[in-house]
Amino acid sequence: MYFLFYFICVFGKIIYVCTLNISIMYVIKHIKDVKIEIQKFTDQKKSIGFVPTMGALHEGHLSLIKRARQENDMVAASIFVNPAQFNNKEDLKNYPRTPDKDIESLKKTGCDLIFIPDDKEIYPEPDMRVFNFGDIDKLMEGKFRPGHFNGVALAVSKLFDIINPHRAYFGEKDYQQLLIVKALVKQLNIPIEIVPCPTIRESDGLAMSSRNRLITEENRKNVPIIYKTLSRAKELSTKMSVPEIKKTVISIINSTPDFMVEYFEIADCNTFFLINDWAETKNAIGCIAVYVSNVRLIDNIKF
Ligand code: AMP
Q1: Whose CA is closest to atom 13 on ligand 1?
Q2: pLDDT score of 22
Q3: Is residue 47's pLDDT more than 70?
Q4: 181-218 in b/e burial notation, b at 16+ Cβ within 10 A?
Q5: Are 287 and 175 in contact (CB under 8 A)?
Q6: Residue of 30, 61, 148, 166 with catalytic role
Q7: How far is ligand 1, taken at its centre, from the CA of residue 243, in Å?
Q8: Are residue 115 and residue 139 in the same domain, yes or no?
Q9: Residues 226 and 179 placed together within one structural domain of the fold
């Protein structure tokens, strides 16, 4: 039986999580300590893959770590619940936090370094930068969560500067965020390859999300309707127009008790321009946000 034995050593401000197979994972809180450790890998000409997260990790996050593990010599992850990207204080307060379990999962998945800063470390003083991503951040998540993507860009640009990876891994589950990050590295001439990773789902189709644990048992039974409806919309897209598909999806999901669609839009996968006719693009994506009672879930499907 494979038996993992964890022990934690504290040297200075860096925690080393070790297993019997003698691999070490650095758990670091401070920027200056991260930079020292990262520099050691860089000096050895090791490629660095980076996975930024907000913690409460699940298999979706871990799929990014696994991909980074395959493609790089060294894998770094961050756990930072970024206050700047929450436009709702209650949402920030209720965001799930499971740091001990996360550290264990990251160690088992082959992560080499975790950066777990507190708010003051990332924002020693208010970061007043304002980004402009053209139209991408004005609709869907950008429209319903004002300031959200500016907050994402503030944190991601700082994390990129600290870790300075060769590649960074982002889930297609947050498709609009992926486009924002791609735009960010282009705008700032940051030489990091952004690697998109497919959405990991539960067996009933629900896209894995840290927020899923906030869904009540009663609502959990109905939640597969979201991806089922998106999949059905994909099937029907050869027969129905864009406006018809949108109307159908919204009405099916809204007819489920406690479910309320905030938006369902169909856009071009690359430019994110909304389309009204299938002829406008060969690569359409449907993106949805749904309130399930007070839990907000997002998902998408490529047509
Ligand atoms: P978060 O902790 O929600 O900020 O997510 C961190 C990273 O994990 C982001 O790049 C997300 O897109 C990605 N991610 C979250 N859920 C999933 C999922 N179900 N499948 C793939 N990637 C995901």
Answers
A1: 171
A2: 57
A3: yes
A4: bbbbbeeeebebebbebebbbbeebbbbbbbbebbeee
A5: yes
A6: 61
A7: 29
A8: yes
A9: no
Q: Does pTM surpass 0.85?
A: yes
- The CA 50 to ligand 1 mean position distance, Å, reads 13
58 catalytic residue (yes or no): no
Give φ, ψ of 269 to 5 degrees.
Answer: -60, -30
Which of 61, 111, 195, 300 has most ligand 1 atoms within 8 Å of its beta carbon, as the pocket-test mutant? Answer: 61
Does 55 have pLDDT greater than 80?
yes
Among 67, 115, 173, the mutation site with the greatest number of ligand 1 atoms within 8 A of its Cβ is 173
CA 11 – ligand 1 centroid, Å? 31
Polymer length in residues for the chain: 303
Tens of pLDDT, residue by residue over 1-35, are 334 445 555 555 667 666 555 578 999 999 999 99
Ligand 1 center from residue 81 Cα (angstroms): 13
Ligand 1 atom with least separation from CA of 55: 2
Residue 13 domain boundaries = 6-197
Contacts of 226 (CB under 8 A, 6+ apart): 205, 206, 207, 253, 288, 290, 297, 299
What residue ranges line ligand 1, CB within 6 angstroms? 53-54, 60-61, 63-64, 170-171, 173-174, 197, 199-200, 207-210
**Number of domains making up the chain:** 2
Of the chain, the percentage scoring pLDDT greater than 90 comes to: 89
Look at residues 172, 197, 222 and tell me which one is the last residue of a structural domain: 197
Which residue among 163, 197, 231 closes a domain? 197
Query: 216 and 177, same structural domain?
Result: no
Q: What number is the average pLDDT over the span 98-110? A: 96
- The reply to whether 205 falls in a domain is no
